[in-house]
Sequence to fold (762 residues):
Amino acid sequence: MMVFLDEIVHLLHAFQNFATMALTPWFLLLLSLISTLLVDVTLSAAHQDNRKDYIVYMGDKPKPEVSTTTTSALHVNMLQNVVEDSNIAHESLLLHSYKRSFNGFAARLTEEEAQKLAGMDGVVSVFPSETKKLQTTRSWDFIGFPEMVKRSAIETDTIVGMIDSGIWPESASFSDAGFGPPPKRWKGACKGEGNFTCNNKIIGARYYRSQPYPKNSSDVMSPRDTEGHGTHTASTAAGNLVSKASLYGLGLGTARGGVPSARIAVYKVCWSDGCPDADILAAFDDAIADGVDILSVSLGGRKPLDYFRNAIDIGAFHALRKGIFTSASAGNEGPNLKTITNFAPWSLAVAASTIDRHFDTKVQLGNHKIYEGIVTNTFELKGKFYPIVYAGDVPDRAAGYNGETSRLCQTGTLDTKLVEDKIVLCDGPTGDGALYAGAFGYVLTSRNAADVIDPVPIPAASVWFHVGNEITHYINSTRNPTATIWKSTEGRDALAPYVPSFSSRGPNPNTPNILKPDIASPGVSILAAWPPIAPVSGVEGDDRVASYNIISGTSMACPHAAGVAAYVKSFHPNWSPAAILSALTTTAKPMSANLNPEAEFAYGAGLINPSRAPYPGLVYDAAEIDYVNFLCAHGYSTRLLKALTGDSCSSSQSSHGTLSDHLNYPSVALSTSNPKSVNGIFNRTVTNVGSPKSTYKAKVSAPPGLEIKVNPSILKFTSLGQKLSFQVTVKGLIEKTIVSGSLVWDDGNFQVRSPIVVYFVF
Fold:
């Protein structure tokens, strides 16, 4: 029965991929639903026995001298003592091993086995693992934004534009059930080209292709998403509530966007071969004219560019002029400093942060040792072991490679005859070479094994560097070394939030005194909608079908921030993009420099705080002329600015003050070439959007060596919309590359926080 079902699912998936171009979307959707049902039947058949999930609680966490590996082995040994069925691999019954904060494990047991465990020494209790009420897929709840949060009646009139790889309109995340017609002000169009239709949720869709059509690709010349990225980001920003969403059981919960009642407009600029600047600008051009309120742009280059040599900066500047807010991803080129690629002051630069969920993936060796790793691994090997080899021992010598090159598992460096159907231990950050050489699976060793690795096309895990050394020792000391990789299980990351290594860091390479990134949002292990024809791992040949996928990147952080911006916009439709940016950053939750030594260059003002963002108390507003003045001070010519905005630079605009002094930015950054003599003056203006009559007092936190003064230190407002100005003076010295302080304006109800960063120019 199981084999039969697996074969049907495999054939159906293959047929679906083959037939996609010819079949109607409705029939494709039917195929997808049937596939999902068959997968569910397959998974259910595997559990049609008398076993249930139990928690075995064993009290306090293990003593420091007991390693986590030893603890895991102890849990497996306990299972061996109670499970009498020799046909069952004991390790396959273990769902999770608890050992960081307390001791115990979760396992699939019969009632009799549970009773035996309950009578063992050291066991405090054994009880069934109940299914609690399904909640969000974690990211929104983690940042304090529950399903039942207060919402504005005009959220449904808010339009979020997605400049990305398109969308899969048949996804439940984009159903228009319960939606009325689009807002009357909407001027967009649906360029579906036959196999794509819009609805009252997806109210507009366009696609752009300025270059020749990619050869031998799965690209579809329509707004339909065949890559997955655009569908994922769109559902994160504004997807409907969809219960029981998961990736093969991982991340089970309710998938939802930040503004589930909002409308979506799609601008497909990304294809299998990239996202051309020409198409990006065309998308901005249409989106601005169509009348979107918010733009989410999870795109970026690999190196910093001048503001007006960057298509995204140009498009965002013109969006700003029309009152459209742009959220842009900071980039995935971290962790080195000055790697951020989207940093224009007129758009929000979003770094990625972790949430308190991660996916553990265990590697077990033939000597019974078990090591914890990561990677979102959906493959269930059921305890079956495979030969394991070290990549440095299997180079493709005929192609001229030796062990020093093959150990990194780069494509083409491994001998396929020595790798095929084996698990390969790689010293590099990628297992592509093992994959394409025909390996059954791979294990990566990394100095950043705490970072997440997205779904893989074959069984895989990533372990710490020292664990890789232990596995290498096992391979070298054993005649027939073997290993297996377990399916991932969901765990909790007690250190979250922190910024993963891949997220690009500041400082701003163009304007050192404008802090970038602005803010951090969830961008690690995010579950969101996925096209059923797109490979789960992004690798061609991966024929798994999924309606939701778990991926990571600042691309996932960007739509979280866009969703929050749309949420703020729904309460304050007349606020400028600068006011929204200010609201998001001044209400952010401070993050810890102990977890990220790059401090604000990693996370900006901190972790986004959606529930507070519409109620900032004060905002640092800016109009188009303020950005013109900023550009004048930056040295842009009158001719250029005249062409951009019709405005000219005056001599006072181009020569007076610092660059940051020409822009009313909600953060303060000061670069210095002399760390022993720091001196900076910043003029700022705040607008009252809180209580009509209120008195704010300045609360300053200064790092050692610096003196920060605010004048005046008390601001008294008598009406909403009133503007008051103040000056921040920073003097002293710094003993580290970067030091951080803060200014908080507090009236007892609102706390308006601005980070103050001083750093040595390097």
In short: The chain has five domains: 2-45, 49-131, 139-355+500-603, 358-490, 618-622+664-760.
